[in-house]
Amino acid sequence: MTPTAFPRLLLRLLVPAACLLAGCGHAYVNPDIADPARAKERLAVDSAICKQEANDTVQPTYGLERFEFDPTIEAQADRFVANAAEDDANLDVYATCMRHRGWRFKK
């Protein structure tokens, strides 16, 4: 790993973690479930099912496969676009699954 790649790697790992801890994640509600405790349990189950469905449909890449070690701007841009497209496709499958299970974004 080159010395300049480490700060970028660190930034790519810390920003999503900070967003999760800050509450930037998606908030779902199911208007068909009145009891908050039951809704929380059902959300956990449905979310796990939809996450598995999304990962089965759009195989995510992990670790070093998400990084490009070619330092040219073209190679870096190509990898960034490929990662963004994969993430968007995975999230689309997840969101569609959640919608089919009755969940909507909290407003």
Distance between the termini: 43 Å
Tell me the number of helical segments per DSSP (H or I, 4 or more residues long). 3
Which sheet architecture does the biggest sheet show? 2 strands, antiparallel
From N to C, what is the helix and strand string? HEHHE
Give Rg in angstroms: 17 Å
Proportion of strand residues: under 5%
Helix content: 55-70%
Class inferred from helices and paired strands: mainly alpha
The largest beta-sheet arranges its strands as: 1-2
The tally of strands reads 2
Mean pLDDT: 83
Flag low-confidence runs: 19-23
Shape: elongated
- Summed up, the domain count is 1
Protein name: Lipoprotein
Keywords: Signal
Organism: Solidesulfovibrio carbinoliphilus subsp. oakridgensis
Signal peptide: 1-27
Give a verbal description of the structure.
This is Lipoprotein. Residues 1-27 form the signal peptide. Keywords: Signal. The structure is a single chain. The protein has helices spanning 5-22, 36-57, 73-100, and strands at residues 28-29, 104-105. It is mainly alpha-helical and 107 residues long. It has one domain (26-105). It has a two-stranded antiparallel sheet with strand order 1-2. The longest helix is centred in the last third of the chain and has 28 residues, at 73-100. It is elongated.
Question: Topology, pairings included?
Answer:
Layout (H helix, E strand, L loop, with lengths): L4 H18 L5 E2 L6 H22 L15 H28 L3 E2 L2
Antiparallel strand pairs: 1-2
Helix pairs in contact: 2-3
Organism: Solidesulfovibrio carbinoliphilus subsp. oakridgensis
Keywords: Signal
Protein name: Lipoprotein
